[in-house]
Amino acid sequence: MRSIDRRVCALLLLLLTGCASIGQAPAPPEARAALAPTGKLRVGLYLGNPLSVVRDPVSQDMKGMAFELGREMARRLGVPFEPVVYPSVGALIDATKSGQWDVAFFLANPARAKDVDFTPAIVELELGYLVPQGSSIATAGDVDRRGVRVAVAVKGQADVLLSTSLKQATLVRAPGLAAVVQRVKSGDADAIAANKTILHELSSQLPGSRILDGRFAAERLAMAIQKGRDAGSAYARRFVQRAKSEGLVRAALERAGARGAVVAPME
Q1: Yes or no: is domain 133-218 CATH 3.40.190.10?
Q2: What is the pLDDT of residue 20?
Q3: Nearest 5°: phi and psi at 158?
């Protein structure tokens, strides 16, 4: 009986070892070649958003959900991780066809899908408004009025959506989030439009400011892969699904302090 027990235990150990080996199996060479043609995984990021990357002003250390996921993907691919950081999401998107990055993380929409392939959604988030102290604007539904000026990051998702949906309010475009905040501080804008994760970050720069109740859209953030890299896109889709199921996305959100975002459902 003891001999049988030993054989059973040995078999179980072999099976568990095999499962662990499968889970840690190296990435297929074709996926690695497609995603990291330079030998490094160049991950496009933009500053100021914990869903992408934020930089400590003193230590210069970087953190953010996309920063963490990009680094983990590079590790699983077995290649060095190279963050390619832009000052704004608009600058990141402008560089889509430049060949400067291999994958990036930003809000998915049909217009952008013409230039990149997207994975399933990683997180879901609301887009809304931030108003400065003393503003008479009470809810998101009160923003679209004559004379109201809404600051947006140029080519960001808020810019894309509000360009067609606002009927009376005016958009004030700025080259990045720092410039967006400055528009309000200088009195050139009455509100900021962005996803609520960004708005929570910006609120600390505008004491007394409020994030309005309600939203003007709900969006989904995904990983973008350069077109024509089918083997890489297939690997990236599997990586995203595993990152959600293994709790990597939730943990990255918590470490980054990304408020207003939730892990997207499995697809």
Answers
A1: yes
A2: 38
A3: -65, -40
